[in-house]
Write a structure and sequence with these properties.
- The chain folds into two domains: 3-256, TIM Barrel, CATH 3.20.20.70; 319-381, Orthogonal Bundle (Arc Repressor Mutant, subunit A).
- It contains 15 helices and 17 strands.
- It has helices at 38-56, 77-90, 110-119, 133-138, 145-157, 176-188, 206-209, 217-233, 252-258, 291-296, 315-323, 332-339, 349-355, 370-374, 376-381; strands at 9-15, 17-18, 30-31, 62-69, 93-103, 123-129, 163-169, 193-198, 237-240, 243-245, 262-266, 271-275, 282-287, 304-309, 330-331, 359-362, 365-368.
- Strands 9-10-8-7-6-5-4-1-11 form a nine-stranded mixed beta sheet, with helices on both faces.
- Helix 1 (38-56) runs parallel beside helix 2 and helix 2 (77-90) runs parallel beside helix 3.
- The two termini are 37 Å apart.
Length: 386
């Protein structure tokens, strides 16, 4: 068995089109006009995947598939079914694989989502952001509060027992009252998973160029801590900085990222990370961002925007910036196995963070303290390569 055979492998599929570009969004998303090039894009995704499999010589089964965007739910159930069936002809997909589709509340119809379920989608991630009409308008969302409520109800009636609701706090004109109301409403819809994260003004976004007035930092921290406690009281356990799940309903695909496993990335602007042959050769790569350039590439290998090798000196930071997002932290023995580096490569930075009470090391299990989780950037700075 090759050393890489024990590393889980996931597949990320990017759908770059959306109804409207949100002012806070820094993802590779593009407003579309006219008809979506459904079949052309599905064909491009499949040749893209085939090329990746051949280049990286992948034979490991896929543990999870995540369709993100953009708004993948703009595509028809027939297109998604065709994509999944043809993926299975190219690479093994585990029978119990988690297969997630991101969805916008504006696209929800009961029949359509029942067909998504029948097509093989077994998990949804719904971009709610808020149930407050005024806050949704401030965020430039295309849905309103009623559409958001309908989306949760339709997810259940369409047969989805596993779905996530995305919520944001620290919004323009947001307050503790509005954030707590959002959390209470989300819980009432009985999702298996809730993502609850702070709005940040990312570069190359409209909000970064024209910053809205946000609540004070102390108010944002209060929103976070009180809502976190409310989620805990209703049996949504925080397992990652912004992720809360019912028992055994953690997002397996995202856990694959955070535990430094491998993933193939197909679609315009998609990223991938692959350990090839041995733990000494790791690659990050990404595809052309422009949907037009991606579709018009004469050969599938021309869709690769760039490919880089992860140097050994970068591995401590690469490993920690993922694992320390998790409440469980990591075992030092896992670090040694996954990176191929000695545990000593984490020192003296690791001890420095322990002395500052940002990290703990209990019998080889390293994890953030509650304070450390709030200052993760400060921890990671200690492991940066000059």
């Amino acid at each position: 068995m090759k050393p890489t055979d024990s590393i889980p492998l996931s597949l990320y599929i990017h759908f770059p089109w959306c109804l409207k570009k949100c002012p806070y969004c820094d993802f590779n998303s593009h407003e579309f006009t006219g008809d979506l090039p459904e079949q052309n894009y599905i064909n491009a995704l499949l040749t893209d995947l085939e090329q990746d499999i051949n280049f990286f010589k992948e034979s490991r089964p896929i543990e999870s598939i995540f369709m993100g965007g953009g708004t993948p739910s703009l595509f028809s159930p027939e297109a998604i079914h065709s994509l999944l069936e043809n993926i299975k002809k190219l690479i093994p997909v585990k029978s119990d694989a988690e297969i997630t589709l991101e969805a916008n509340p504006s696209t929800f119809e009961n029949q359509k989502f029942s067909e998504f379920n029948s097509a093989g989608i077994n998990r949804l991630s719904i971009g709610i952001q808020s149930f407050n009409d005024s806050l949704l308008k401030n965020l430039g969302r295309t849905h309103n509060s009623q559409m958001a409520l309908n989306a949760g109800e339709i997810a259940h009636s369409a047969g989805f027992t596993n779905f996530n609701l995305d919520l944001m706090f620290g919004l323009p004109q947001g307050s503790l009252k509005s954030s707590l109301c959002d959390i209470q409403t989300a819980i009432s819809l009985k999702p298996s998973h809730i993502s609850f994260y702070q709005l940040t003004l990312e570069p190359n976004t409209y909000f970064h160029k024209f910053p809205p007035v946000l609540p004070a930092d102390d108010d944002i921290f209060q929103m976070q801590t009180i809502c976190q406690q409310h989620l805990k009281d209703h049996h949504y356990q925080q397992y990652e900085i912004s992720a809360y799940a019912q028992a055994n309903k953690q997002c397996r695909h995202n856990l694959n990222y955070w535990t430094f496993a491998d993933y193939l990335g197909i679609g315009a602007g998609a990223h991938g990370k692959i350990t090839q042959q041995t733990t000494d050769s790791r690659y990050r790569y990404w595809k052309l961002k422009s949907p037009q350039h991606y579709l018009s590439a004469a050969h599938s290998e021309q869709r690769i925007g760039n490919r880089t090798t992860i140097a050994a000196i970068e591995l401590p930071l690469e490993y920690l910036m993922n694992h320390l997002r998790l409440n469980q932290g990591f075992m030092l023995s896992d670090y040694k196995q996954k990176t191929g580096l000695p545990i000593a490569s984490l020192y003296p930075a690791l001890q420095y963070c322990i002395d500052l009470k940002l990290l703990t090391n209990h019998r080889g299990m390293v994890r953030c303290t509650p304070q450390g989780w709030n200052f993760l950037d400060r921890i990671l700075e200690q492991f940066c390569v000059d």
